[in-house]
Each structure stands twice: as structure tokens, then as C-alpha cells.
């Protein structure tokens, strides 16, 4: 992979990032004197189960190394600000959780340590599949460890399938038939498209499931393939759910998965694409809905088998300015070990990255988690590029809205989206 072109979040960060790191270099070279404690940043709101697990891991680490662990939770809306301030002021942690698509951005700012050699010596880490390291690897250097993963599947009303005698679809024709049956009999969206903030994640498996690509690397540049014949066919099939078949409303083009989950909970949607975490949103939205009425199946490719899914996930990284790289990575090895991942994945509502754990009956024989676990080995990445978030936030949403509202043809909208993607990624 090429090293992504540098684009500083701010001039201040750029200057600090180039100047910092002497202590970190010493630590990386083995001069890692044991501190009284190390600091770990976790992202999001904690609850009792999360705190209890993290405390137990901290106690075990302290028993092993004689070093305490201070865990600080950073709310999601504050993550960028927190990282920027720490990069500029040298007040970062030793270990941080980080979203896998964000690794490239912060690695390019000099915020994350190169842990390539440490990963190479980590035996359990060698069992994590190569495809799950794509977001963490830049120019053959590794900057984070895949910890917990999340893929998507089709969330559906199992009770409606039973009532209407619908079989779980195994290709797109059957998926459309099921959606039409639901719409005709339930006065509901048979298959709700997603045009909101996470539209890319819902659309991507259709493109990949038609042997298309979203973006590819060509030498020193990223090239969008949204306007390729295979990708256009997938976009057309997806938008036709609204424009031709009427199994989803035009208003869906502004809704994200959280809004769709709430409609699903209240009998207005029969199927949609989302992650395993959707179940808690659904049950919170309608506590009277029987959990057995909610199930999932792996989204099929156009002509059968399973469509590849975006492999999102939570990573663990060593902060570059930490003076204790070795200890920090020892902590990562413990937290990301098979033993700890087995305990924590159900608490987090995510999936382990180890194939051995995914193959366990606890996942594969579970009606809800099984389809997500089956899709995990098929996980793919988007462009490992620090400008990708801008693409994800705007380009696909605009393309879908233009098509569904009749403002542009599929050919025009995909051509425009491909051009925008190329310009954004190759700045």
C-alpha cells in the first residue's frame, strides 16, 4: 500500500507531530522503565458490565507486571477534540481504542506508534486473518491491532416471514420477492434502503455482491469504480427498490440505520441492513416486541452465496508519545487475547476477530449472531485514506438522493460520484 498523502488536521498538530517523540523512541528501543501505572483510553459511554471487565483486566495486568492501569472513557462526540489536544500538548495515553477507519488519519499525524515488529512477535496475533489488517497497515507498517469487529446482515421480521410463508432469500431475486410480499400484505416497507449517515455500509455489500468495487488503488492514486458496469447495476437494483418496485418509500433516502431500526420496531419495515447492535435499538424502541420476532440472515450476493461486507471494528493502538511502548503493547496483547475477547465480545455486542472463536457454536448456532459471524471472514475495507470519511459522509448520500428523486440518471449520478470520490481521495 502507498503511504497516504499528508493532510494535517491543523497546522499546530503538524508542527507538534514532527517535533515529538524522543521519549517514545527510547521506549521503542527497549529503554522502557516500568512506571507506577499506564493510561488507557476507551471510547464511548461505559456501563457496569464494561467497567467491571476493564477493572478485571487491569487487576490481572497489575499482577503480571506490577503496573496499575488507569482507564479513561472518552465520549464519542469528544474523540477528535481529545486526540487533537493530546497530539498538540503531549498529554496522550499509553494505549488507546480507535475506530479502524480512523487509524490512517492519526497514523499520518504521527500520533500512533509503529508496532510492526511487536505484532510480528505476537503469536496469537498471527491468527487474525490478513484481510482484517487492511485498515491498520500503511505502507507495510502496522499502527493498530484489530480487536473487535462488526459486519452487517439483513435484519428481518421473522414472525412476518412465518406468517406469510417466506423463505430466507438466497439471491437478489428472492430478496425482491420477499420484499414485495411484505409490502403487499403488511402495509410496510418490504426492504428499507438507507440514504442517511451510514448509507455506504448498507450499499457496499450490494456492489461487492455483484462483483463490483467501490474504489481501487492504482499506483499512487485511488480510483473510484462506482461508475463501472457492475457497480452501476448494483446501484440501479438498490435504487429500483424505491423507484420501480415501491418496496421502500422515497423518504428512506434521508434515514440512517437508527431511524430505520425504530420504524422496524413499530411494524413499518420488514427488512433492512444493519449490524448486530441493531437489536438493542429495536427492543428499546418497542419493549413489547417479542425478541423472537427479530432475526437476521446473511445478505446474499446477486446470484447466491454471501455478499462481502464492510469489516468495521474497534482497534487498539500504542500512542506514539508514550514512554512505555513495550508495556503498552503487553497490555494490548492481554486485552486482545483470545481469552479476553471471548469474555468481552458479548458485552460489547461485537464479534471476535479470531476465526477459531467465530467458528464456535456460541455464534454459529445462534439465530441472531450466526449470520453476522458467518459474514465476518468475508469482511472488506474501503480506501485506507485519511480523506475517506469525507467520501463516506457526502458522496454516496448525494448519489442516492439524485437517483431516487429523479434528478439524475444512474449513469449521471454514478459518474459524478466517482469523480467526487477521486478528487477527495487524491488531494
Structural description of this entry:
The chain has 427 residues and is an alpha+beta fold. The chain has two domains: 202 residues, 3-Layer(aba) Sandwich (D-Maltodextrin-Binding Protein, domain 2); 198 residues, Periplasmic binding protein-like II (D-Maltodextrin-Binding Protein, domain 2, 3-Layer(aba) Sandwich), CATH 3.40.190. The strands form five sheets. The chain has a six-stranded mixed sheet. The protein has a three-stranded antiparallel sheet with strand order 10-7-11. Helix 1 packs across helix 4, helix 11 crosses helix 12 and helix 18 runs antiparallel to helix 19.
List the helices and strands and how they pair.
Layout: H1 11-19, H2 22-28, E1 37-43, H3 48-65, E2 68-74, H4 79-89, E3 95-99, H5 103-108, H6 116-120, E4 137-138, E5 141-142, E6 145-150, E7 152-157, H7 158-163, H8 172-186, H9 199-208, E8 215-218, E9 221-224, H10 229-243, H11 257-265, E10 271-275, H12 278-285, E11 294-297, E12 309-310, E13 312-318, H13 325-335, H14 338-348, E14 351-352, H15 355-358, H16 361-364, H17 370-375, E15 379-380, H18 388-404, H19 410-425
Parallel strand pairs: 1-2, 1-3, 12-15
Antiparallel strand pairs: 3-13, 4-5, 6-13, 6-14, 7-10, 7-11, 8-9
Examine the secondary-structure arrangement and name the CATH architecture of the largest domain.
Answer: 3-Layer(aba) Sandwich
CATH C-level label of the largest domain: Alpha Beta
The helix content is 40-55%
- pLDDT averaged over residues: 90
**What strand order characterises the main sheet?**
2-1-3-13-6-14
Compute the number of helices.
19
User: How large, in whole angstroms, is the Cα Rg?
Assistant: 22 Å
Cα end-to-end separation: 17 Å
- State the low-pLDDT regions, or none: 1-31
Beta-strand content: 15-25%
Q: What is the quaternary state of this protein?
A: single chain
Number of strands: 15
| Outline type | globular
CATH fold naming of the largest domain:
D-Maltodextrin-Binding Protein, domain 2
Give the helix/strand class.
Answer: alpha+beta
CATH superfamily of the largest domain: Periplasmic binding protein-like II
> How many discrete structural domains?
2
Main sheet properties: 6 strands, mixed
Amino acid at each position: 500500500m502507498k503511504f497516504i498523502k499528508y493532510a494535517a488536521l491543523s497546522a499546530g498538530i503538524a508542527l507538534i507531530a514532527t517535533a515529538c517523540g524522543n521519549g517514545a523512541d527510547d521506549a521503542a528501543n527497549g529503554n522502557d522503565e516500568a512506571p507506577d501505572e499506564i493510561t488507557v483510553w476507551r471510547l464511548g459511554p461505559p456501563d457496569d458490565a464494561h467497567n467491571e471487565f476493564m477493572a478485571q483486566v487491569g487487576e490481572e495486568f497489575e499482577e503480571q507486571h506490577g503496573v496499575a492501569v488507569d482507564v479513561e472513557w472518552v465520549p464519542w462526540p469528544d474523540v477528535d477534540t481529545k486526540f487533537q489536544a493530546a497530539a498538540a500538548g503531549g498529554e496522550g495515553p499509553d494505549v488507546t481504542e480507535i475506530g479502524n477507519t480512523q487509524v490512517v488519519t492519526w497514523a499520518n499525524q504521527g500520533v500512533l506508534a509503529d508496532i510492526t515488529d511487536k505484532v510480528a512477535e505476537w503469536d496469537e496475533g498471527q491468527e487474525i486473518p490478513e484481510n482484517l489488517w487492511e485498515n491498520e497497515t500503511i505502507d507495510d507498517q502496522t499502527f493498530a491491532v484489530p480487536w473487535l469487529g462488526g459486519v452487517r446482515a439483513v435484519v428481518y421480521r421473522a414472525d412476518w416471514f412465518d406468517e406469510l410463508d417466506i423463505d430466507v432469500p438466497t439471491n437478489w431475486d428472492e430478496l425482491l420477492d420477499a420484499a414485495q410480499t411484505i409490502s403487499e400484505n403488511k402495509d410496510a416497507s418490504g426492504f428499507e434502503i438507507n440514504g442517511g449517515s451510514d448509507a455506504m455500509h448498507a450499499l457496499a455489500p450490494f456492489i461487492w455482491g455483484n462483483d463490483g468495487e467501490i474504489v481501487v488503488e492504482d499506483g499512487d492514486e485511488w480510483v473510484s469504480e462506482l461508475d463501472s458496469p457492475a457497480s452501476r447495476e448494483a446501484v440501479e437494483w438498490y435504487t429500483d427498490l424505491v423507484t420501480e418496485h415501491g418496496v421502500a418509500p422515497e423518504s428512506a433516502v434521508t434515514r440512517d440505520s437508527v431511524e430505520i431500526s425504530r420504524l422496524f420496531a413499530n411494524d413499518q419495515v420488514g427488512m433492512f441492513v444493519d449490524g448486530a447492535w441493531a437489536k438493542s435499538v429495536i427492543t428499546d424502541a418497542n419493549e413489547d416486541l417479542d425478541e423472537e420476532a427479530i432475526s437476521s440472515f446473511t445478505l446474499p450476493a446477486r446470484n447466491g452465496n454471501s455478499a462481502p461486507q464492510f469489516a468495521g471494528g474497534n482497534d487498539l493502538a500504542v500512542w506514539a508519545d508514550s514512554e512505555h511502548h513495550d508495556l503498552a503493547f503487553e497490555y494490548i496483547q492481554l486485552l486482545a487475547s483470545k481469552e479476553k475477547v471471548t469474555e468481552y465480545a458479548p458485552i460489547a455486542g461485537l464479534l471476535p476477530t479470531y476465526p477459531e472463536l467465530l467458528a464456535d457454536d456460541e455464534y454459529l448456532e445462534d439465530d441472531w449472531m450466526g449470520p453476522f459471524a458467518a459474514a465476518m471472514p468475508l469482511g472488506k475495507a474501503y480506501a485506507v485514506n485519511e480523506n475517506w470519511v469525507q467520501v463516506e459522509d457526502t458522496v454516496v448520500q448525494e448519489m442516492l438522493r439524485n437517483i431516487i428523486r429523479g434528478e439524475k440518471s444512474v449513469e449521471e449520478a454514478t459518474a459524478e460520484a466517482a469523480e467526487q470520490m477521486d478528487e477527495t481521495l487524491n488531494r
